[in-house]
Amino acid sequence: MTGVGDLDLDRTTATVERTLREQRVADLAGVLAPLTVPDVVAVLERLPGRDRAVVYRLLPKEQALEVFEALDPTLQGELVRGLQDEDVAGVFARLGPDDRVSLLDELPATVASRLLRGLVPAERELTAVVLGYPARSIGRRMSPGYVTVHPGDTVPEALARVRSRIDDAETVYTVPVVDDGRRLVGVVSLRDLMRSEPTSVRVEDLMRAPYAVPAASDAEAAARRCADLKLLALLVVDEEERLVGILTVDDALRILEEAESEDQARIGGSEPLRRPYLATPVRAVVRSRVVWLLVLGVGATLTVRVLEAFEATIAQMVVLSVFIPLLIGTGGNTGNQAATTITRALALGDVRPRDVGRVLAREARTGASLGLVLGAAGFVLASLFYGAAVGAVIGITLLAVCTLAAAVGGVMPLAARRLGADPAVFSNPFITTFVDAAGLVIYFLVARAVLGL
């Protein structure tokens, strides 16, 4: 079954909405039948909440589970509230423990408790293991469903063990090797097991050193490690090096996607929506933006106060006001470029808070170089129209502002990480506000010195 294109998907969504409005629910099954799982997810993301549950109930049982797993946790929670209890219990029981935990975080406590009580004891215990870790730790995102082998197992014994757990394990391509105390001692790939012909070969002859992270470590950092090492699965251990779970590459990529979306939203001065845009109510979009706008509005009063303080300087030479948008815009953009670069470098592990001195020096040099180029251009253009004195003010100010903006923009994300805050929060919006005010102070001080005002 092949997917449909964007245009056909829009038509399909429109057909579904029209069929629902006309209350021809029986015809919906025929509309949904040719759609793949990603297509159905895309349709559900575009539907209002009240219609989403109706469409979901018409999906075949196996496809329904795949569709549910592919939805964002927030949409899963809304869908659960629109389904009947027996529908919810069936889907919930068939989810993996890590997916159950993501869903439980979106549900009211009473609903979550009821769903947990409906699980068989073994599944409830696995889910409880994941629930026991902090919200942003990798323990909260790992899967406790895995298959292990022992160093002394022969290859046939190991393959038989993998085969017996193949329906329960999250993945069987990476097989952890543990001792009798469940401590992680190595890892072996299914490929190596299957291509080993002699029955006397043991797992300890094939295993290699494992890559593992503590369960309490940050989920994003663990996911980044999994992606950087190009692993199919990253092993998760407790404080005593006992295996407690695995992070598969698809879950790692999902964590990184969420982190990237969060950083981009905060760099732009808003909170992440945590759900597809078209499925987000307008009031939620407003809430995600209004607080930041209010904070930045208050911060902008600092710029107003600076202008008031130099009102007499502006009155003596009104032409200075012409260049204010250019100078504060250039400073803000320079600071944002530096902050975005360093925030990304932090996420990738290229820099750490202890590198603040090196980052400050590099960004100051970078800002000065940019300032020389832009300042020279500003001097030439301003001199042509307003004279060499005004050109000198613009050139010197651009040099100083670019140097300051780049240095501040590079250091602020590192300072945020040192304080335990999200570096993206300290990036573009706050840097722009700070650089605007500082840039105006520099501008008017340079003007007073050069022009003798």
TrEMBL record:
The chain crosses the membrane at residues 290-307, 368-386, 392-416, 428-451. It is a multi-pass membrane protein. It is found in: Cell membrane; Membrane. One of its GO terms (molecular function) is magnesium ion transmembrane transporter activity. Residues 142-206 form the CBS domain. One of its GO terms (cellular component) is plasma membrane. Keywords: CBS domain, Cell membrane, Magnesium, Membrane, Metal-binding, Transmembrane, Transmembrane helix, Transport. It comes from the Bacteria. Pfam families: CBS, MgtE, MgtE_N. Homodimer. Acts as a magnesium transporter. Belongs to the SLC41A transporter family. This is Magnesium transporter MgtE. It comes from Georgenia soli.
